Amino acid sequence: MSIWTEISPTPFRVEYVDAAGVPTRTLRAGDPAAQAVVFLHGTSGHLEAFARNITAHAAYDLHAIDMLGHGYTGKPDKPYEIADYVAHLIDYLDAVGVDGVHIVGESLGGWVGARAAVEHPERVRSLQLLCSGGTVANPEVMDRIRTSTKKAVTSDDIELTRKRMRLLMADDASATEELVEVRHAIYHTPEFVAGVDNLLSLQDMERRLRNLLRPEDLARITQPTLVVWGRQNPFGDTPEATALHEGIPGSRLELFENCGHWPQHEQAELYNPLSLEFIGKAAG
Predict the structure, then answer these.
(1) Beta strands in the chain (DSSP E)
(2) Model-level pTM?
């Protein structure tokens, strides 16, 4: 099964939106008259991370984007902090005329979504945090992300990209060869190579610490929130998920077995109905 055959039962289009001067690659699908859902990927990721979720969510006005400096989106030459990602997200929503959105954020995307929910509560209808980053600064994990990504970007050896993708998954088979090839192609565009340090800047301890979501930040999240975590997540143990859940008032926690860092992909058959139920309740 290909990424595109998984998506193709649903009419979709891939286009570039000018988000306050940043050309932003987006996959749009679903019903433009319905409430909007936006998918936000993780560090060094791209919209294809949600290929297994597009058709399931086609009842909504669906947007899967390459975030600032990622994928084929524009790459301003500066280190990216969470405020930069949030500003880009809001600029994108403004550009496409979306006032309120259900945010589904994986890893870095969850961190960005949570900060958007705090700083722009009027724009966020609900929040899903899939193995979300942003609450801890673990030097070992940060070094693993930085080192594995830099090796894959600075070498033409596709095996390094394959290892980087497999690092995310509980089962190596979940890192399909097509996903590996897509990421390898993105990693080796001249623009991505030139800007890789900018998108890895949150792996710097000083910068990360000033961007973290503190307990007082989590307590300000009033939107319906779903926390989804893989029990084999290589970038964060389940106590981290529990702390995130307990810090956000009224949130819901779901732990997936046989799952690493991409629950929406690795366990799509469990995740999709859960997500639809959650968004449906939040949408009223």
Answers:
(1) 12-19, 22-30, 36-40, 61-65, 101-106, 124-130, 225-230, 252-256
(2) 0.98
